[in-house]
Amino acid sequence: MSKKQLPVAPAGRPCARVTCETLPSALDRWDGGIKAAATDDNSISVFDVIGQDYWGEGVTAKRIAGALRAMNGADVTVNINSPGGDMFEGLAIYNLLREYEGRVTVKVLGIAASAASIIAMAGDDIQIGRGAFLMIHNCWVYAMGNRHDFAELAQSLEPFDTAMADIYAARSGLDMAAVQKLMDAESYIGGSDAVAKGLADSLLSADAVSDGDESPAAALRKLDALLAKTNTPRSERRKLIKALSGGMPGAVTTNDGTPGAAEDIKPETINSLESALAALVK
């Protein structure tokens, strides 16, 4: 199916009070070590969260636009293994790929969850690993405000959910009601099922996928999600992650080259980390 036949995604955000983070269940399922076995100059890797995070990392529309300009209209392969993230950034990337003049081949190597699943739809040809997954759901955001704000937010998110359902339906041939039911259920769709449902065209061969060590960034994101489950405040999580991620953008480095925290970390945060790690090994 030509990507040009797909609907254009809506642009922008419903309101300034909304922020997006990666769904914890998607992070749990994400193996950041899964990569393409081989790449070339005309390939784009989507191997991180969607949208810029507080380290300045992540897959953004700006970065994808720059990569596509460098391709200069040549055919491109987009390799995806991402837990998702900022849905609205994902819609912008989808539009960039949809409008690209060259042929786009999408390869889902591990997981294309949430915003990454929308990006995956923007291929002329979509290939998925037999053990890979698409995950589709409704918009998932953080927000603040009173009851009137939340009532307004629910209304403003509805068009985005409808637009995403329209994209999945157009790509697959499923009717809107069936797609919306899958989204409401936060559905993880395996490789063979994705092909059967029309959300992918074919299965990838096993030798197209390489399973290596998980990246430090992926491990830190999972640690952040783990701490969130212990109700550690976001500010404390960020201090701890920054202290542990000395080599990552945004980390503080001391004069002797060793990583240091921007602020002192509360003992309670260290205790939360120790408890979370202890629970993992039980």
Description:
This protein has 282 residues and is α/β, with parallel strands linked by helices. The protein has 2 domains: 209 residues, 2-enoyl-CoA Hydratase, Chain A, domain 1 (Alpha-Beta Complex), CATH 3.90.226.10; 65 residues, no CATH class. 41% of the residues lie in helices and 16% in strands. The protein contains 10 helices and 11 strands. Strands 2, 3, 4, 5, 6, 7 and 8 form a 7-stranded mixed β-sheet that branches. It has a two-stranded antiparallel ribbon with strand order 1-9. The protein has a two-stranded antiparallel sheet with strand order 10-11. Helix 2 links the parallel strand 2 and strand 3. Helix 2 runs parallel beside helix 3, helix 5 crosses helix 6 and helix 8 runs antiparallel to helix 9. The radius of gyration is 19 Å and the shape is globular. The N and C termini lie far apart (48 Å). The relative contact order is 0.15. About 6% of the residues have low confidence. Keywords: Cytoplasm, Hydrolase, Protease, Serine protease. This is ATP-dependent Clp protease proteolytic subunit. InterPro entries: ClpP, ClpP/crotonase-like_dom_sf, ClpP/TepA.
